[in-house]
Amino acid sequence: MKAKELRNLTSEELLSKLDEFKSELFSLRFQLATGQLQNTARIKTVKRDIAKVKTVLVERKLNEARA
Asked: Which Gene Ontology BP annotations are present (predicted)?
């Protein structure tokens, strides 16, 4: 998911996405540990998505603090 798309979401939707990505990452790590994961690159993608969501949330907090 692109950061531009994330900026169009509300804060509640971003927090929901963050929880979604975290649970997916947990599931992927579990699959990796049990040897069932086929696409290991998906872990990296999900980690980056989590970072993007967190970045957008921090940007919003900083903008609110300045206003």
From this structure: translation
> Which pTM does this prediction carry?
0.92
Of 55, 64, 62, 38, nearest to 1 (Cα)?
Answer: 55
Distances (CA, A) of 33 to 3, 5, 20, 37, 40: 30, 32, 20, 8, 11
> Domains plus CATH for the chain?
3-66 (1.10.287.310)
Rg over alpha carbons for the chain, rounded to the nearest Å, is 14
- Is 43 exposed, middle or buried (CB count within 10 Å of its CB: 0-12, 13-18, 19+)? middle
Structure tokens given for 43: 């872990």
Helix axes 41-66, 11-34, angle to 10 degrees: 160
